[in-house]
Amino acid sequence: MSLPRSSCYFLSLICILSSLYITPSLSDDTSYAKSLIKFKQSLTNTTMLDNDWKEPLVQNLCTSNKPNWIGCLCLNGSFVGLRLENMGLGGVIDVESLSELPLFSLSVMHNHFSGPFPKDINKLGKLRSLYLENNSFSGEIHDDAFNGMKAMRKVVLGYNLFTGKIPMSLLKLPKLVDLEVQNNQFEGRIPDFWQGNLTVNFSYNKLEGAIPDHLSNQNASFFFGNNNLCGKPLQPCKPKKYSISKIAFIVAAVVGIALAAFIILFLICRKREKPLKYKKSIDKYQTEEPNYKNNEYGKLYFVRNDRERFDLEELLRASAEVLGSGSFGSSYKAVLFSGQAYVVRRFRQMSNVGKEDFYEHMRRLGRLSHPNLLPLVGFYYRKEEKLLITDYVENGSLASHLHGKRSPNQPGLDWPTRLRIIKGVAKGLAYLYKELPTITVPHGHLKSSNVLLNKKYEPILSDYALIPVINKDHAQQFTVAYKSPESTKNDHVTRKTDVWSLGILILELLTGRFPANYLKQGRGPSSDLATWVNSVVREEWTGEVFDKDMNMGRHGEGQMLRLLKIGMCCCEWDIQKRWDLREAVEKIEELKERDSDDDDDYSSYVSEGDLYSSRAMTDEGFSFSKA
Ligand SMILES: *[C@@H]1O[C@H](CO)[C@@H](O)[C@H](O)[C@H]1NC(C)=O
Ligand SMILES: *[C@@H]1O[C@H](CO)[C@@H](O)[C@H](O)[C@H]1NC(C)=O
Ligand SMILES: *[C@@H]1O[C@H](CO)[C@@H](O)[C@H](O)[C@H]1NC(C)=O
Ligand SMILES: *[C@@H]1O[C@H](CO)[C@@H](O)[C@H](O)[C@H]1NC(C)=O
Ligand SMILES: *[C@@H]1O[C@H](CO)[C@@H](O)[C@H](O)[C@H]1NC(C)=O
Ligand SMILES: *[C@@H]1O[C@H](CO)[C@@H](O)[C@H](O)[C@H]1NC(C)=O
Question: Number of structural domains, the chain?
């Protein structure tokens, strides 16, 4: 697979190409048009096709990247596939007629097809992607169904009524990168998939048995809702009767340990310290500092003046709620007697710097003040453990809004909101870069779960600027910065590393899809990230790129495309070519909610269809000469 290195350049190329309206090619497609009409005859309810797919036959199915017949996919004036989605179609898929076409991609998603899996689909030897999602196909798929389809990359069968075993011939597709069979009734074991870079979705079937080793690093959610699957990433395989009691035991143990830790901390503080006076100011602390050795326990250190003062004991007495254990450490919400809520985070892996330097760094963070940054309020220092106290933000994280469960009447984030969010993120980052010029990666942990949203859905960045105090090993394991290509390859991070994370965040925001790189623990090669970026930007050219929840209408599409392009330029693998933060921020600030009439570069020329074709074009693997 190719890396996304030239994506930026290619998108610009698309604009130029489409604005020039390249002259029609000289090819004669009438025989293809004939085959399409033959194919149509076995379909039912073809009203959406009837306007175009009829005599007289067109001579060219494509003009440049624009189809002349609805549903055709075009590339450089050549017909390359069919995208017949949401057309109310039913009937039979006549593979015989399709086999007369140069068909690289076939999508019939969201229609009313029923009956068996299309017979002899492997006669379509060039096929790279097959999308049958959300129809009513049923019955078993023959084990040999995919035999010989050496070019196949994406097989998307979700939301149908398929039964029986997952066909073994899928194991013979060397290039397979995406297999989605969720919400069917497949049964039996999951075959031993071996392909590198493969992402899968097996959720909500009737599968059972052990999950193959090679898939053990996939997100557990891709296996949910099956009868009896076990093994990593789910529960270990054990006799059934133990599993529930075991879960209960683990839950009890975790709760117990957390409680014990709190009680011990509480007792220690009670013994060593009377409650502190609340009114100490920063200056006072600073003059006291030489004595801090005598005050090692029980003492909170406040880094800003505009907050109430409280002591550790009060914090521990506050009603607390476990918020979760992030990649850095566990966090709690504590509501003080005054009613004020704070978040307390425990860090164990923060002994990278000595005490003086730690205090200095925290004071520096305390001096930061920006509407898009979560303020650090204070901290507690012990050699083995640190507590950082920040404000509490009402509305959860961007990640929870993008990927969490919503109640049915709650709308998704719309485009204007998402645009505001990314603009706020950019402002926050720009501020960090200005204020922390000596830190290589001023944020270092930018991802959607660290972008909090306040009541007005304005973004507030958290977890920033911690790399200098985090133990190096730990940072490499857990920070997003260390999953950038330069870090995985050459083990170094640069001031452009945050830009990479910003790019991923942009792609996530636009597509609503969860980036694979947050999932992977440890360092390993970031091949799944590469796949993710690729699949977002290039391979999915017959799926919808943009998250449907954005409710965009056509008025903002040009602007969304611009943002997509910015995201791709931020995700440039080559650091030299990757934009620096200033450039990314400038481009983001230029974006508007709606396309204006004089925007002639994107909105007026690039239609949805062009975008999909453009993704095919940017896919280096896509060329007619290659087998
Ligand atoms: C026929 O197609 C139209 C849209 O093209 C759709 O609204 C309708 O439900 C379909 N009818 C049947 C019977 O599938
Ligand atoms: C399935 O397709 C129908 C149109 O046939 C569409 O209305 C519906 O939203 C689709 N469902 C999913 C889950 O994509
Ligand atoms: C996985 O993807 C990476 C980057 O896209 C590519 O270099 C590598 O060859 C792929 N691995 C396999 C086994 O296909
Ligand atoms: C996997 O399938 C489930 C539905 O069964 C769906 O909720 C989830 O979004 C899918 N994941 C991906 C990455 O497609
Ligand atoms: C799996 O993916 C979902 C979103 O699709 C995410 O909320 C969840 O945190 C992921 N699980 C892990 C273990 O990373
Ligand atoms: C499409 O046309 C462009 C420019 O004319 C060319 O560089 C590219 O190789 C062509 N792509 C294919 C797949 O033919």
Answer: 3
Domain of 82, in residue numbers: 5-230
DSSP-assigned states of every residue in 575-604 = TTTSPPHHHHHHHHHH--SS--TT-TTTTT
- What is the C-alpha to C-alpha distance for residues 441 and 458, in angstroms, rounded to an integer? 23
Of all ligands present, the nearest one to the C-alpha of 520 is 5
Residue 387 shares a structural domain with residue 403: no
- Report which ligand 6 atom has the smallest distance to the Cα of 78: 14
Residue 112 in contact with ligand 1 by CB distance below 6 A: yes
Q: Whose CA is nearest to atom 7 of ligand 5?
A: 403
Q: Is 44 in the pocket of ligand 1 (CB under 6 A)?
A: no
Residue with CA closest to ligand 6 atom 6? 76
From the list 412, 456, 419, the residue with the least C-alpha distance to 593 is: 419
Taken as a whole, the chain contains a residue count of: 627
In angstroms, the CA 154 to CA 156 distance is 6
Q: Determine the Cα–Cα distance for residues 541 and 105; give it in Å rounded to an integer.
A: 9
pLDDT tens across 237-288, in order?
A: 875 444 444 545 555 555 556 666 665 565 544 434 333 332 232 223 333 3
376-381 vs 451-453, strand pairing mode:
unpaired
CA of 175 to the centre of ligand 3 (A): 9
| Residue finishing a domain among 391, 425, 441 | 391
Please give the distance, rounded to the nearest whole angstrom, from the Cα atom of residue 562 to the centre of ligand 3: 28
User: What digits encode the pLDDT tens for the residues 137-171?
Assistant: 999 999 999 999 999 999 999 999 999 999 999 99
Same domain, residue pair 67 and 214: yes
Residue whose CA is closest, atom 1 of ligand 1?
88
**Residue in the block written with tokens 């925290």:** 362
Residue 514, ligand 5, Cβ within 6 A: yes
Whose CA is closest to 75, among 88, 84, 87, 63? 63
pLDDT at residue number 606: 34
The encoded tokens of residue 153 equal 């990359």
The tokens of 472 are what? 């190096």
Most informative mutation of 51, 112, 135 for ligand 1 (most atoms within 8 A of CB): 112
Give yes or no for a contact between 387 and 344, defined as CB atoms under 8 angstroms apart: yes
